[in-house]
From TrEMBL:
Cellular compartments per GO CC: cell envelope; membrane; nitrate reductase complex
CC cofactor: [3Fe-4S] cluster; [4Fe-4S] cluster
Keyword set, alphabetical order: 4Fe-4S, Electron transport, Iron, Iron-sulfur, Metal-binding, Oxidoreductase, Repeat, Transport
Top class in the EC scheme: oxidoreductase
InterPro entries, per database record: 4Fe4S_Fe-S-bd, Nitr_red_bet_C, NO3_Rdtase_bsu
EC number(s) from the headed UniProt entry: 1.7.99.4
PROSITE patterns: 4FE4S_FER_2 (PS51379)
Organism of provenance: Selenomonas ruminis
Name assigned to this protein: Nitrate reductase subunit beta
Residues spanning the signal sequence: none
Length: 472
């Protein structure tokens, strides 16, 4: 057993209001510069929809992630030699049109306009060519099902069993915020011919070394989530850095910090690195979720604690793992699920699937729908979060419904159903974390600079590692 620590995130989709504050906060901090105009390390898309970039989930087109060939894991983009042949011509690269052509407006025409009969207009201008342009697509074009045509092209609708008509009475939607998943088995790292992308030892954050990157761009199609971008100004790849300078100071990512819905949770997970390959090679895609759960370790188990100490995981990280909100949501309660586990990269950003609107039925008191009756079809959610396995999504939704039922009984004084009576404490805890948790309960990031250097400094100084005023 080789124990590693991973900073992980869970998003509770029930609470996302699609305000895009997270995307804008991230944009202002990390990609507000030339060459990065079109990049959104964090984007929020409406589902159903084709997303950003268009059709990112269509791996037949982009050849992203891993597949099993004769029982062995192989990058979908081909073997090492096949990929080397594509060094100078790589047909599976997304183009500007697949993202969008970024633009600004001629604001000056508003400010300097002479007095006229008609109101002056600020016309759009391309941020790439500086020429006037007509806007035909954007990173959020399908917001709230705005473009019916592209909504119908969502590949998850095609793959799911059972028909949906997209008629008004059948319509459903939800928001899906996305960042890099800082995967345990990252396809971007495996595809990089220069070794410039790496997974950090101490916290599992996946980064691109800007010095090492040679601009071969193999990471871009290899990432099945399309979360690596090419900077046309610097000729280097860039991606979400999980706000590592903030993490090193015990703070969550900026998207988490600014999230209006307070739906993001961050914390430490411990996992067995020796079993990562085995988990990613699970033959049944619908079972990958279970194999990932198996490699996540119980931070309260004395054997795990002992082994983690031997691996050099610092005490404050072990403590954070024991109070990790993401561990509770993922492993303890099993209500958070990975996005498209079938890509086999073992993502470390997970989602609590959304309950569809709970309505009041005239003839009954308050009506909680059955899992199978919800407005968002179970089969659709299973395409996103269960690799087609409706069972794992149903299990998560059922727990969320049961939690609501327990809390409703609590409020109204109704009797709690017998089948839930034993777990009332668990459901109350779940409610506290999902509904009313404070900042420090939602985010438990071990403070200090990167764990290894922090320990080294402690060793050197015999104190806390800071020799400046305020250090101990
Ligand atoms: S989601 Fe992030 S870590 Fe995973 S393959 Fe894509 S870029 Fe790499
Ligand atoms: S800030 Fe939060 S609520 Fe708003 S879109 Fe982003 S994830 Fe959703």
């Amino acid at each position: 057993m080789k124990i590693k620590a991973q900073i992980s995130m869970v998003m509770n989709l029930d609470k996302c209001i699609g305000c895009h504050t997270c995307s804008i906060a991230c944009k202002n901090v990390w990609t507000n510069r030339q060459g990065a105009e079109y990049m959104y390390f964090n984007n929020v898309e409406t589902k159903p929809g084709t997303g950003y970039p268009k059709h990112w989930e269509n791996q037949a087109k982009w050849k992203g992630g891993w597949e099993l060939k004769d029982g062995k894991l192989q990058l979908r983009s081909g073997s090492k030699s096949e990929r080397l042949l594509k060094l100078f011509y790589h047909p599976e690269q997304p183009e500007m049109d697949d993202y969008y052509e970024p633009w600004t407006y001629d604001y000056e025409s508003l400010l300097s306009s002479k007095r006229k009969k008609h109101q002056p207009v600020a016309r759009p201008r391309s941020l790439i060519t500086q020429k006037r342009m007509e806007i035909k697509w954007g990173p959020n074009w399908e917001d709230d099902l705005a473009d019916g045509e592209s909504v119908r092209q969502d590949i998850n609708l095609k793959n799911m069993a059972g028909e949906i008509t997209m008629e008004f009475h059948d319509l459903f939607m939800k928001y899906l915020p996305r960042v890099c998943n800082h995967c345990l088995n990252p396809a971007c790292v495996a595809a990089c011919p220069s070794g410039a992308i790496y997974k950090r030892e101490e916290d599992g954050v996946v980064l691109v070394s800007q010095d090492g990157c040679r601009g071969w761009r193999h990471c871009i199609p290899a990432c099945p989530y399309k979360k690596v971008y090419f900077n046309w100004k610097t000729n280097k790849a860039e991606k979400c850095i999980f706000c590592f300078p903030r993490l090193e100071n015990g703070l969550p990512t900026i998207c988490t910090d600014t999230c209006v819905g307070r739906l993001r949770y961050m914390g430490v997970l411990l996992y067995d690195m020796d079993k990562v390959k085995e988990a990613a090679s699970e033959p049944e895609a619908g079972n990958i979720y279970h194999s990932v759960l198996d490699i996540l370790l119980d931070p309260h188990d004395p054997a795990v604690i002992e082994a983690a100490r031997k691996e050099g995981i610092p005490a404050n990280w072990l403590e954070a793992a024991q109070h990790s909100p993401v561990y509770r949501l993922i492993k303890e309660w099993k209500i958070a699920l990975p996005l498209h586990a079938e890509y086999r990269t073992l993502p470390m950003v997970w989602y609590v699937p959304p309950l569809s609107p709970i309505t009041r039925r005239m003839e009954a008191d308050v009506y909680l729908p059955e899992v199978h009756d919800m407005r968002i079809p179970l089969a659709y959610l299973a395409e996103l979060f269960g690799a087609g396995n409706t069972g794992v999504v149903a299990q998560s939704l059922q727990k969320l419904l049961d939690m609501r039922l327990v809390m409703r009984c609590q409020e109204t004084g109704e009797e709690i159903p017998q089948r839930l009576a034993e777990d009332v404490v668990v459901y109350k805890d779940m409610y506290r974390l999902l509904a009313i948790a404070k900042y420090k309960d939602r985010c438990n990031i071990p403070a200090g600079i990167s764990a290894k250097s922090q320990d080294k400094l402690r060793e050197l100084q015999g104190t806390c590692g800071y020799n400046c005023p305020g250090g101990c």
